[in-house]
C-alpha cells in the first residue's frame, strides 16, 4: 500500500518512507529552480495544484458542467488554461481513464501520476504541466519513472502543456527506459532493497 502524507509531501510504502519522484528529479536536476524566488515557486505550485484539481473533477461528457466550471474559475489565466485543456481534449480525442493515481516502484520511489488516457485509440501516459517553458528531458525522466512504477506498457507518452501565455499543446515525450532509470538511481545512491 502506498500512502501520501500531503502536509509533509512524503510517501510511505507499507509504512516505509520512500523517495518521491519529485525528490529524485531534484537530484537529477539540482539547479532547475535555483534562481527562482521561493514565493514565486509557491505561487506557481498553487496555480498548478488548482489546475490539476479542476481537470481531475471536470466532467468532459457534460458540456453544461464544463461551461459552468470554467465560468466559475476566478483566475483569468487559469480559466484560459482550462479552456485550452478542453480544446486539446476535443482536438486530439483525449479520453481520461485514470487521474491522480499513486504508484511506486519497489521500495525505491513513489509518486502520483497525472493521467492515463485513450488518445486517438492509443493507451497513453500523460503529465499535465502549466509551466511557461517545457522541459522535455525532465519529462522523459518523470514519465519513465511513472511508467516503471505503474508496471504497464503504454503506446504513447505525452505532456498536456497548458502555459498561461501560449496555446496549449499535446507534446509527445520519449520516456527514459527501465535500464536508464535503474542506472541513474544507483548513481544517486538509491539502491533496490
Could you explain the architecture of this structure?
This protein is α+β, with helices and mostly antiparallel strands and 193 residues long. The chain has one domain (2-187): Alpha-Beta Complex (Lambda Exonuclease, Chain A), CATH 3.90.320. 41% of the residues lie in helices and 28% in strands. It has helices spanning 21-28, 38-57, 63-71, 76-92, 136-150, 178-187, and strands spanning 2-5, 10-13, 16-20, 94-105, 109-119, 122-129, 156-161, 169-172. Strands 1, 2, 3, 4, 5, 6, 7 and 8 form an 8-stranded mixed beta sheet that branches. Helix 2 packs across helix 4. The protein is globular and about 50 Å long. The mean pLDDT is 93.
Features:
single chain, 193 residues, alpha+beta, Lambda Exonuclease, Chain A, eight-stranded mixed β-sheet, 28% strand
Spans of at least 5 consecutive residues whose pLDDT stays below 50 are none
How does the major sheet shape up?
Answer: 8 strands, mixed
Number of domains: 1
The DSSP helix count reads: 6
Query: What's the rounded overall pLDDT mean?
Result: 93
- Please report the first level of CATH classification, the CATH class: Alpha Beta
**What's the helical proportion of residues?**
40-55%
Q: Name the beta content range.
A: 25-35%
Order of helices and strands: EEEHHHHEEEHEEH
Amino acid at each position: 500500500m502506498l500512502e501520501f502524507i500531503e502536509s509533509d509531501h512524503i510517501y510511505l510504502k507499507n509504512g516505509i518512507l520512500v523517495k518521491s519522484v519529485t525528490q529524485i528529479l531534484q537530484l537529477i536536476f539540482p539547479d532547475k529552480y535555483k534562481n527562482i524566488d521561493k514565493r514565486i515557486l509557491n505561487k506557481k505550485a498553487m496555480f498548478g495544484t488548482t489546475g490539476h484539481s479542476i481537470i481531475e473533477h471536470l466532467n468532459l461528457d457534460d458540456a453544461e458542467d464544463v461551461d459552468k466550471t470554467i465560468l466559475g474559475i476566478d483566475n483569468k489565466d487559469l480559466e484560459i488554461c482550462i479552456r485550452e485543456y478542453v480544446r486539446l481534449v476535443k482536438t486530439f480525442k483525449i479520453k481520461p481513464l485514470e487521474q491522480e493515481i499513486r504508484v511506486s516502484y519497489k521500495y525505491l520511489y513513489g509518486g502520483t501520476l497525472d493521467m492515463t488516457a485513450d488518445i486517438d485509440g492509443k493507451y497513453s501516459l500523460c503529465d499535465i504541466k502549466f509551466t511557461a517553458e517545457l522541459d522535455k528531458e525532465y519529462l522523459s525522466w518523470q514519465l519513465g519513472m511513472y511508467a516503471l512504477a505503474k508496471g504497464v506498457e503504454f503506446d504513447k507518452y505525452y505532456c498536456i502543456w497548458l502555459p498561461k501565455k501560449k496555446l496549449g499543446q499535446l507534446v509527445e515525450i520519449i520516456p527514459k527506459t527501465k535500464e536508464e532509470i535503474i542506472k541513474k538511481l544507483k548513481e544517486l545512491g538509491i539502491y533496490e532493497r
